[in-house]
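Quarterly update from the structural biology core.
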Amino acid sequence: MKALIFGLHLALLAPLCAVAQKSPIKFGEIPMDDMTMKTYNKDSSASAVILSDYGEAYVTVTTINASLSFERHVRIKILKKDGFDLADVEIPLFREGTEEERVTKLKATTYNLENGKIVETDLSKDGIFKEKFNRNVNLQKFTFPNVKEGSVLEYSYTLTSGFITNFPDWQFQYKVPVRWSEYWALFPEFFIFEKYMQGYIAPAVYEVKNKNSTDFRIDGHHWVMKDVPAFKDEPFITCKNDYVSKINLALSHINFPGKPVQEIMGTWEKLNTNLLESEAFGKTITGSNFLKKKAEELTVGVTDPQQKVAAIFSYVQKSVEWTGTKDFYADNLKTIFENKKGSAGDINLALASMLEKVDIPVEMVLLSTRDHGFVRQQYPMSSQFNYAICSVTLGDKTLLLDATDRYLPMGILPERCLNSHGLVISKTKHRWIPIQPKAKARTVISTELVLHPTGELKGKMKYTHEGYAAREFRQVYFAKGEQEYVKGFLADKAWEVESSEFQNQAEVTQSVNQIHAVNISEHTTVAGGMIYMNPFVMGQIKENVFKLEAREYPVDFGRPEEKTYLCRITIPEGYAIEEIPKPKVLMLPNNAGKYTYNVSQTGNQLNIVSMLQINQSMFPMDEYPTLREFYNQLVAKQAEQIVFKKL
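Predicted structure, tokenized:
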């Protein structure tokens, strides 16, 4: 949204900067205690610590427009090499048409202690550059010079924007601890904002101070957090930005005295209407008439609507390569098909347009991908979304389609899309729908091995991948090629592979198989007439991924998972089984997960069956202790050995 034009018959309103606050630190004045710091006393494992993070945002209003200013001042201590990535800074700049936010007063300095003196190295202008992130965001980037262990980094800047609806949120918590974080958000009394706090750490200070300007009241919202611990990025979360401590701000409406209320946030219904009327969204679907001929060619003679959908889906999926950009608008589709590359919005709006041309009812569904975060349905803002897929209803069946991924069959969404709910943009009725996985990540490992008295194992191993597991295999296989894939398969193994065979690599509607003839010499231990062997030649879970005793956010697997391990071992002549693991069945409540394990003997053959099923995608915090203990017991069971004794 460009700078608002109010056309008010008011005197010139004083800019809010007249009541702006001050940073708690002064640029360039670094305490010697911070320069000599070797470890952070609140977290000795920290690779860096944000010493101070100060920001203030304010709106400047005149009789003709309004603009937004955001000032930031950051100071960081680097303690270890692992913290060097904090020397790379990105400042997002929103843009629309020819308008773009801009950064001024940028300065950045690295401070090092040399022979007891503080030596400064300033950022040079040629170290600052800009790159495109997506349709509406550029990134202004820079890297601090001369960064070492022990350096202190400091930067400050002012961001000026005509997009007052993009009022900055403020993040208090990062992957490294924060000693001091402070934010001032200064609102004119007639600017009404929605505010919501997230995370599990409460501010040390939250206050609202009313400040009088020449013509109106300013509400100064002030937050402070001290000694904020580092965010622990545990596995199986959607996006850390969903869980870090943060204040989110959204301009709801503007209410000038004697003037009609100006809605900014609006409603989902209004967003639905705006998108249908947008040249880059709804009109791209109903327009783009150059696609009509191709859509008709692909479906000529086809009467089954699902076969029509399949033909068009396959064409788009194979014709346009996804660039990796996530969005829900389209550029000129003719250019996209000529270049054979496009964003998620380009590809899926093209798919919708082609389906519309052959009278297949299609609607778009707005999503927030897993790395973009949750959608809060009480806040009708398009900025909560970053992706769009197609929804096709055929009778009583609904297909959700995303043609960006060449390694998934029609009707199976990429894992990045599996993030709770989506908003259907519709000419008849916009609505929310659940986005649920339609496939598992299923892998079956079948092995037939002959054990020799020397401890060597010889035989065949077959992997069968289905659903999301097949997609993961295909991505790596086609990226590397068969020869490099096999090298990667053996990367940490001293195995000899006599031959390898792959089946159905390119048939995305089928499971994919890989079969390897192997000689394994390092898996067993032979001593004193005994052979000790872990039965899991492949696929053993050696450690529990859930390391924290308590967890403050849910476990989100995204999709169900199933891993089966079948192994048949021929016992060497002259040996008998001395010890085998006992059978085990582990169950999670409500059939959320199950693990079964059994080892049995038939003649001179030993049969191992291990099956892990995770049937529930999301585990809330109160179920975490049970899930963690489930994996503890699974890891312990899979660590048990088989012992063979020489007769």
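The chain has a mean pLDDT of 92.
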